[in-house]
Predict the 3D structure of the following.
Amino acid sequence: MCYTDDSHHSRDRDGRRVRTNNYGCGGSSFGETRHIPFQLWNLAKLLATPSAAPALFGGVLLGYVMYDLTDYYLQHANPTTAVTTNLKKSHLNHHFRIQDKGFGVTSSLWDIVFGTVN
């Protein structure tokens, strides 16, 4: 089954959904999703030196995968620490109560900066 980011909020309790499985699913605003890694690679080559481009590309991909796994964990697991419990509370508020606040999945830092703390 293919899930897009558009269905993220409507299917967030579906344990089969992990966004990292989207490659090859179909269209997105950037063209087909499977092309995004190529676009990111070209952007990394444009922004960095030839020797630094692979590190930039790998860092962006790792960051995205870690973000997505954290999102999945907060929706499907029972956090055991105060930090993860607070992140889960904020994340579930974002999904089910106040969808225009609480965008920070892994940290509330940018919610504080942009005034979107819930």
About this structure: Residues 53-76 form the longest helix (24 residues).
